[in-house]
Amino acid sequence: MKLPISWLKDFIDLDGLTVEDIARKLTLAGLEVDEILYAGLPMPTYSAGEKHEFKTNGIAWDKEKIVVAEIREVKAHPNADKLTLLDLFDGQQEQVVLTGAPNIFHLKGAGKLEKPIKVAYAKEGSTLYDGHAEGQVLMTLKRAKIRGVDSYSMVCSEKELGITDESDGIIILDDDAPVGTPLADYIGDAVLDISILPNMARNANVIGIARELAALTGRELRADNRPQTVDGPSSTVNGPSVNDLVEIEITNSELNPRFVAGLIRNVEIKPSPYQIQRRLKLAGVRAINNIVDATNYAMIELGEPLHAFDYDILKERAGDKKIKIITRTAQEGEELVTLDGMKRKLTAMNVLVCDEKGSLSLAGVMGGSESEVYDASKEVLDAVGVEVKAGEMPQGKITSRGKSTVNVLLEGAAWNFINIRRTAKQHNLPSEASFRFSRGVHPALAEIGVKRGLQYMAAWANGSIAPGLVDTYPLKPKDSVVDVTSQDVKRLLGIDLTLEQISELLTRLEFKCEVMSNKLQVTAPAHRMDIDEGVVGLADVLEEVARSYGYDKIPTTTMSDSLPPQVGNPVHEWEEHLRDLLVAIGLQEVVTYRMTSPERESRVVTHNEYVRIANPIAPERSVLRQSLLASVLEVVEKNAKAESIAMFEVGSIFEPVKNDLPNEPRRLAIVMTGARIASAWDVKDSPKFDFYDMKGRIELLLAGLRYTDIVYTESESTYQLHPGKSAEVKVNGQVVGVFGELHPLAKEKYEFSDAPIIVAEFDLEKLRGLNPSYGITPVSEFPPMYEDIAIILDESVAASAVEALIRQTGGKTVTDVRLFDVYRDEKIGAGKKSLAYSLTYQAEKTLTDADAAAIRNKIVKRLENTIGAKLRS
Amino acid sequence: MLDKLNEIEKAALESLSSITDQAALDAWRIANVGRSSPLMQVFAGFGKLSKEERPVVGAAANRVKVALESALEQKVQAVKNAALAKSLEEEKLDVTLPGREVKIGRLHPSTQQLRRVLAILAEMGFQVYTSREVETDEMNFQMLNFAPHHPAREMQDSFYVEAEGREDNPILMRTHTSPGQIRAMREASATNPQNPPPIRIALPGMCFRYEQITARSEIQFNQVEGLAVGKGITFADLKGTLTDFVRRMFGQDARVRFRASYFPFTETSAEMDVECFVCGGKGCQVCKNSGWLEILGCGMVHPNVLQNGGYDPKIYSGFAWGMGPERQLMLRNKINDIRYFWGNDVRFLEQF
Q1: In angstroms, what CA-CA distances link A77 with A83, A123, A740, A794, B152?
Q2: FRET partner for B317 with CA separation of 20 to 30 A, picked from A165, A259, A747, B204?
Q3: Structure confidence at residue B149 (pLDDT)
Q4: pLDDT (tens digit, 9 = 90+) per residue, B79-119?
């Protein structure tokens, strides 16, 4: 909410505190000041290196140069039709000022004014906002000749002084404005823009903030000395009692705990005093007229939204009978045309304010404009409804039909906050009223609000208040009473306070405290609905103790309680280890959106069922992913211009379970494509990543996880992979993943570069659950022997089978078998291939040539006999 | 004979002086100090000399031999040095050419930041607790003291999952990692309902809010929450523990402050600010001229939440806090667009 400091000062003495001091105190107590807007008061200046505390904006008004002045005569400009010349007195001397202001133009040529007009006068050299520029542009007032007349000063508009963003004329001050006084001393202000937390809605008003400040500074809340009585007769309270004219029936007290109405007669509709308009505008509310302004002003001041009805229309509708206001829930499907002209279809949850003829307004949210109300010859006022955009204040509305005095029935009520919230949401009608009602307004405020509203109307519109209030209050909220002990404060806040000290801290916030032998009995003040009872109430009260004491004064300690059992998180730890391995083999981690669409995934894999988002942000984010690989492929597609990509993601996929929580198994996806080696000035045409680059990394990964029993077989993946360039990975006999080159047809569906796309996906639930094999191969002191053999054999024999045979036959002496060449040509013959292996022999002795030959011969013989291989000479 | 020796010496030294390469040196060696060289011939012809001549010629010949060998040795070194100097000269590189790129793997910046946070918390005794990303309304909201239609729910607009017959307990994408608080407390209290064990956990994970994707808002983001539950845990402990944590994160000199705030699942609630580490509190774009950065929300665990987790709020107390690794990275690295994180452009990722 936007809060002018001048308004705050009506309720608390802030002498000796700067605007920044006030903002800091509020911010630390949970009323965060987002910005300070200066409209006249001196702004703090920061020297280089000095610390700022708040975002600030606006301008200060020079006390020498900008003063209150009075216009004594309005003359025509000799050379310009649209300009007037003002003879004005600035407290020291007469000045002649040029203006084109439309709101003074009608006085052009009127000569000496009977009653001078008080204005804001800026002398040469003043710094102001440019009234003609778009937005807020600072300018300095300079001497100029306009159409032959010397211009060196000006009469200011609200825009020029930074009170509003736009204005259509000069400010006309109240008649009692002191001529010659610096304007900053008269109406200089600063506005705090405060974020209101959901549990601090009680503070979304001037008195609420003043009350907090009183608690935070230890100052007294200034006695609220405005007349608040409706007890007559007096000069403003007279005539028949409202109770004789109006009655109220509440049909559901849960939804409408209280309804208060007051009556004021013969109010004269005109603009509010300028001081009131200015405060409303600074608070973000448009000034409309004295009646609408009175409801808004009372709401901002007290927090109780008010609703003004035209009493004469209600009377007309009631005919001979007494006016009866009825609050009830709507019939399912019942319709109401709201003030904005929209026909609203209501549900049984919505609450209506009606009379015996029909509905009048959507309770607490927006006024109605049913035809009979609008067709009447009088006026309908509504300060409650009218749609506002987020962050804006409501704009009251008046449908004037030319009558200068009206009779107003003023409503102040209490509504169920959840019901109002749902209704406002259902009809998309956020307003200042529904903002407050949907966060909870204490029923006690209904009466105070109506009285305050009536008083303002009487003061600004010359009306006379009917004695009494119609007040139906079927559901009084129970007072929250909480017991607090010093031990509670020690146990939960960690500070030592006596009951008296606790009492003092809470009393500042208007809690009623009674010190008993060993406890403090605390009763929440009437404006608060956020204090519960029992153990929750204790927490509620202790937060208030902490705020009042000051969070900054609470010490910092370390926990003395014992540590919990150390169970760790094996799954998380294993995945972090996996990530380390993936990074070590040169892969970049990515993190992608969980939300995708079936269409996006179907480019590489098809699933029939998905976890569907009921309110997707966009069609392409309508389901939860079922393929991690599809997500990583999208990232690769986005990075298609990169020379080389090798990336992975570890994350959940989502398998639907009908009408229940989905399964969230973990997956690993890897994609590699592009250059194997980074190109450089002496490296050209790097080979592209292929199947074996991926396989090599998978081998390293599995070795890092201490898995040894690994088998690669032809793939039967659901993914669209190249049938000849893909494989399944089995560890300990279980399929844990698949990898290979993306099928050319699948690849076509993406905008990839030309290089093959090599992919892999692993099921981490399976991969994680396997038995690792720990241990090492001892490193021998004896020298190894190396020997190469090349064999020719049928194409159909898998390389893995050959290696297995070699290892098996060679026994433990053959410690390494490395394939270093695969060769085919005519000499070898069609359907044949040559495989060349480098063998390492190692034993716990120095091997001789004869030892090696013996083993080699055994291997060759075995290969000949088993797979028909021939030793290549 | 002595004249002949002098001539031999003179001629040999003269021819040696013009030699510049190893091959010529080898030839010179054979020609001048080799077995059939004139000098060696002199030695060979010793027997033919008279008894008187022998010592004189012998001494002279030896002198010449030593002179030639010493000259050769010097020359060998000189030739070697010249050759090395030449090859060094020839091998000279353009040191300004770019170095060869090494392709390395990296963790996503969010993972890196999560690890920094979790590593500090681990040292402080907070163990990692992970839980599901799709949750029930009950776990995500109700158990955490968000009543249906509670105003605080507006702070966390949710993505709902299609499901029938679940009006009272819809399925949604978790809006925070806090449902894990309930799950963890329930798991722990189930082990010993009468005397549940203390809890100190860190809850990392992806969370989801219904937002438009813009430079400032995303539909998903990581969160790390911390939770401590036990006997006698106070707001002062919260302040102390979080101050310790924040100083480990942002430096031992970091100034911090606690502001009153509101979260449905904590009470007493606070917002913790750290002095802007970009401008040192002087006011800048990053801290929006306030000098402070909002880095975490915290508070004493609400009695209802303790109760829902199986901990009697009359006996147990605790505190919880939550923070965003992406936000921390954005502040620290002046990243002005949150979309970089899930955009996964390698040109962004490679900078971490």
Answers
A1: 6, 20, 88, 111, 60
A2: B204
A3: 75
A4: 999 999 999 999 999 999 988 888 899 999 999 999 999 99
Other C-beta atoms lying within 10 Å of the C-beta of residue A769: 11
CA distance B255 to A772: 48
Confidence (pLDDT) at A49:
59
Q: Is B344 in contact with A590 (Cβ distance < 8 A)? A: yes
Minimum Cα–Cα distance from A552: chain B residue: B258
Report the complex ipTM: 0.87
Classify burial at A217, counting beta carbons within 10 Å of its beta carbon; exposed 0-12, middle 13-18, buried 19 or more: middle
Paired with A306 in beta bridges are: A412
Give the pLDDT confidence of B116-144 residue by residue, as tens digits: 999 999 999 999 999 999 999 999 999 99
Beta strands in A26-123 (DSSP E): 33-40, 56-60, 66-76, 84-89, 94-99, 111-122
What CATH architecture does domain B109-349 belong to?
A: 2-Layer Sandwich (3.30)
CB A315 within 8 A of CB A323: yes
Q: Who contacts A734 (Cβ-Cβ below 8 Å, separation ≥6)? A: A766, A770
User: Which candidate, A805, A847, A352, A764, places its Cα nearest to that of A571?
Assistant: A764
State the nearest Cα–Cα gap between B18 and chain A, in angstroms.
41
Confirm if B226 and B321 have CB atoms less than 8 A apart.
yes
| Residue A258, φ and ψ in degrees, nearest 5 | -155, 145
Which CA distances in Å does A91 have to A184, A228, B158?
Answer: 15, 37, 62
What whole-number distance in Å separates Cα of residue A527 and Cα of residue A222?
17
Chain B residues whose CB is inside 8 A of the A613 CB are: 159-162, 173
- Site from A193, A209, A420, A559 to mutate, B interface, most B CB atoms within 10 angstroms: A559
Tell me how far apart the alpha carbons of residues A520 and A846 are, in angstroms, rounded to a whole number: 91
Nearest Cα of chain A lies from the Cα of B299 at a distance, in angstroms, of 10
C-alpha span between A42 and A5 (Å, rounded): 13
Dist CA A850 CA A856 (whole Å): 10
Give contacts of B199 with chain A, Cβ < 8 Å: 564
Query: What count of residues does chain A have?
Result: 873
A588, A689, A701, best to mutate vs chain B, most B CBs in 10 Å: A588
Would the CB atoms of A29 and B260 count as touching at under 8 Å? yes
Instruction: Report the C-alpha dihedral over residues A68, A74, A80, A83, rounded to 10 degrees.
Output: 40
Mean pLDDT of successive 10-residue stretches along chain A, which has 873 residues: 95 93 93 94 75 84 96 87 89 91 84 91 94 90 85 92 89 94 96 91 91 90 69 78 94 96 89 94 90 93 91 86 95 88 90 92 82 31 36 36 70 93 89 87 93 93 91 92 97 97 94 94 91 95 95 95 91 97 97 97 94 95 97 96 96 96 98 92 89 96 95 85 94 96 95 95 95 88 92 91 92 92 88 93 91 92 91 81
Tokens of A566: 């150390």
Segment holding B347, helix H or strand E: helix B346-349
- How far apart are the CA of A255 and the nearest CA of chain B, in angstroms? 15
Yes or no, beta carbons of A586 and B100 under 8 Å apart: no
Neighbours of A93 (CB within 10 A): 7
Asked whether the beta carbons of A182 and A61 are under 8 A apart, the reply is: yes
Domains of chain A: 2-60+191-217 (3.30.56.10), 66-187 (2.40.50.140), 242-472 (3.50.40.10), 481-547 (3.30.56.10), 570-768 (3.30.930.10), 785-871 (3.30.70.380)
Q: Phi/psi class of residue A747: alpha, beta or left (left: φ > 0; alpha: ψ in -120 to 50)? A: alpha
Domain boundaries, chain B: 2-90, 109-349
Q: What distance in Å separates the CA atoms of residue A12 and residue A224, rounded to the nearest whole number?
A: 10
